[in-house]
Amino acid sequence: MILKNTRVKQIKQIKQLQRLCVKLSLILFFTSLSSVSLLQKTWGKSCDMALVDWSSEFQCITKLKADEDFRKIPYKSNDITSTMDRIQAKINKLPSSCQKELPSEYTLSPLLALSKYKSHAVLVSNISEIIPNLQAAMKSNGCDSIDTLFIIGHGDSGCVSVGAGIECDSKAEISTTNINNWEKSFKSLNGNVKQIQIVACHSGQGEKGEKLVAEMARIVGASTVAPVKEVRSDQDIMKLSNRERVSSTPKK
């Protein structure tokens, strides 16, 4: 009789342990789901984005951005001539007044960037447009963070245009002389960008260029690189030699 009671108690204890194990398994399962959900919310889809200098001088050809045929122009990194010829053919179909506004190389630069980055290209004509336009593009592409942010425009030592075109304008350029004008906007990107490539001719050249790269890295908290030579708007600056670029990593 005593053995029977002991056996009954053991069976009850085993069942209690089994129920407890099931409860713990369910708790761990739903906790893991919650963690994954939180992780996805914090570290969701990451994309490359490109800020493209689109000055008022380019407004005459802005219609090309919405042109379905233009957007279908294939970007071929191993055959840039073919891509640029197709872009030029599109420009040639615009009214003559548009074609006379700028030398072709200034028009082709932003259009080549558009051809490469498609919906990930963010057109900006001044500093104040950078964050709202970038946020809108990230949302439409389902991006929560940025792998590489390309800043594409005409440049000079310590300067890249974000709407100024070939002219200097403190409201439409990122330079060492107007840090107060763009620091607040770019500081809002801190922690959401892994790398920045400033794709602008000579922007990393000399002391001004080194300062621009260092300040951008500090403000955004992302490794930053810029060329010291002429570049195309579709180039990957990281593929340049160390002599052809300057870089900076944020201090932790």
Task: Describe the SSE topology.
Layout (H helix, E strand, L loop, with lengths): L1 H41 L3 E8 L9 H4 L1 H4 L8 H13 L3 H4 L4 H14 L3 E4 L5 H11 L4 E8 L2 E2 L2 E3 L11 E3 L3 H9 L5 E7 L6 H15 L2 E5 L17 E4 L4
Helix pairs in contact: 4-6, 8-9
Provide a descriptive summary of the structure in words.
- The protein is α/β, with parallel strands linked by helices.
- It has nine helices and nine strands.
- The chain folds into two domains: 1-42; 45-248, no CATH class.
- The protein has helices at residues 2-42, 63-66, 68-71, 80-92, 96-99, 104-117, 130-140, 179-187, 206-220, and strands spanning 46-53, 121-124, 145-152, 155-156, 159-161, 173-175, 193-199, 223-227, 245-248.
- The protein has a six-stranded mixed β-sheet, sandwiched between helices. It has a three-stranded antiparallel β-sheet with strand order 4-5-6.
- It is globular.
